[in-house]
């Protein structure tokens, strides 16, 4: 049995809470590793938290100020010179574009050959798959993701999300919510198939648990309709009925619903509320307006109309909630379209996974206070288009087929 197969088997047969122990044992035995540590990205994407069981603990490391963060941000293996004849190798723990964390391995310099590094990168990807599966049965990795305690509303919202990023040859998606540990109503959801990507951007009404409950009802009603194979306008109508039946119009849900044809870039859109879409094409930023329709659940038996729109390879689409574009600064000035356009231009060279966090940092600077009054949502979609048959796309890994659900 070769060493990679041994590592893969050890991970697949380990108990859910013992994945780190399993990978540590096999890397020490077969790769001469001296130490192995796993770091998980926290909900705010500010630090990488060590996965550990008391009393064994490590300090968190910064996403933007550490060697581990460099591997996480670039999504590439980073070999850090260390004292003597050792090297510390930092490997992204990522599954189908969803960035979970970093695996750090201390190796003798003579064990850092090209073949070993390639195998370690593959082992880190297997570990990412196993972490997602293990989260069904243990809280260890979810606990490691939090540097602060989540509010109950935030706990409900993070459990509802599909992930924070995903990639396919046709597109890359990244998303982030603020305040990460106290969100309540804003949400995003996506699902992809061989030929389509469905994306929902939700701007929840209200605060706290009530807002989270409303969003949970709306998202699950949309999922229920989507999984029944119902077209976009009927998904909206059925979710509208479900919310109205529960709240009788006293609470409702704003949502932007998009259905992309992956082969053509043609998309079908329902704009039912306040989330906005902004497009970067070349160096031109413009808000894209659709026909405004009623939020879900505002009135009984609302009919929804689908509009059509087309994206081109190279387009970047940003979707934002009113917690972004309507935020006011200390002097009462709104963040607005001009400030958002500047933020989009300034982040144009970043990958889609990094853009939401960068835009939210600029928003925080405009706000001038540490805690927002409303939750804020940014989703970034980079559209590559489907490559011609026989040509590799920007993400030609056959394993990157769909966005993988993760809290």
From TrEMBL:
Gene3D superfamilies: PPM-type phosphatase domain. Residues 170-383 form the PPM-type phosphatase domain. It comes from the Bacteria. Residues 382-407 are annotated as: Disordered. Signal peptide: none annotated. Keywords: Hydrolase. This is PP2C family protein-serine/threonine phosphatase. It comes from Streptomyces siamensis. The lineage of its organism: Bacteria, Bacillati, Actinomycetota, Actinomycetes, Kitasatosporales.
